[in-house]
Write a sequence for this structure.
């Protein structure tokens, strides 16, 4: 695989815009694509806001902000963006069919030496790779939200993933300032499998009246020094996303530890999905959220 100077990010949602930001900050030329140009413009404005919030807290400069933004370019056509990049990172919603369609299109257009990475948090990388013309070029690059603050990068190696693709993901991740770990392509990888089981148990504790959501979260932040409690983290990830991952892990592993609690199903059915809707296990109004 050739050295990476240009990266295409497919998906301009929370994760995609975060990946684009850290790629731009690392000096990469970034093409950002989504289904509409409006979504990409909104993502770039969100990146600008995040950078300006950093400046207001003394964690950046206007020159650095402008440099990052100058490296991120809207890409109206996925195929054109993939054709000019050495690394394509997919960050679309957690749908296997959708991700496979992205990899089919990106893989057909990308250079023969390009690496194709998926940001999936739980879906099998090997199943996604089946749609690509070169499955050996496909690797998992699982970033964490918020991408510009979280240091971990989970690099997922499927059975057919080449050593060159893994090395590329590691090198790019380190240049982005991440601390990567390498895991085998197994259900939930390392982080989702551990994180989801803690989150689901916290939900069951809430159902059973063991403690309030606030105190369950405090138990982990104060007692185990987690930066965020499991219920608040579930809200941040999105309860619909948490539910989909839990259902996938329950089907794949057959463990009762991953059976989604009724409280999670009920909140999702009510449209209370966490931060993105303003309410989940916690309230996320402007006063409660504070600055990032």
């Amino acid at each position: 695989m050739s050295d990476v100077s240009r990266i295409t990010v497919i998906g301009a949602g929370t994760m995609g815009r975060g990946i684009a930001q850290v790629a731009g900050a690392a000096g990469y030329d970034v093409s950002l694509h989504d289904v509409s140009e409006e979504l990409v413009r909104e993502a770039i404005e969100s990146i600008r806001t995040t950078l300006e919030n950093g400046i207001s807290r003394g964690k950046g400069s206007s020159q650095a902000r402008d440099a990052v933004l100058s490296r991120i370019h809207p890409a109206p056509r996925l195929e054109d963006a993939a054709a000019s990049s050495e690394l394509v990172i997919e960050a679309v919603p957690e749908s296997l069919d959708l991700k496979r369609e992205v990899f089919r299109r990106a893989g057909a257009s990308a250079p023969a030496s390009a690496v194709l990475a998926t940001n999936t948090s739980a879906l099998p990388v090997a199943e996604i790779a089946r749609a690509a013309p070169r499955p050996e070029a496909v690797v998992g690059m699982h970033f964490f939200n918020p991408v510009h603050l979280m240091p971990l990068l989970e690099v997922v190696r499927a059975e057919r993933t080449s050593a060159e693709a893994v090395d590329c993901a590691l090198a790019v991740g380190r240049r982005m300032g991440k601390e990567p770990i390498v895991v085998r392509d197994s259900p939930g990888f390392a982080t989702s499998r551990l994180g989801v089981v803690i989150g689901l148990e916290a939900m069951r504790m809430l159902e059973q009246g063991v403690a309030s959501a606030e105190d369950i979260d405090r138990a982990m932040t104060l007692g185990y020094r987690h930066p965020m409690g499991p219920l608040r983290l579930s809200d941040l990830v999105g309860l619909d996303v948490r539910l989909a991952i839990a259902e996938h892990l329950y089907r794949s592993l057959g463990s009762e530890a991953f059976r989604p609690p009724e409280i999670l199903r009920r909140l999702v059915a009510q449209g209370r999905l966490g931060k993105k809707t303003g309410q989940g296990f916690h309230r996320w109004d402007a006063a409660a959220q504070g600055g990032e």
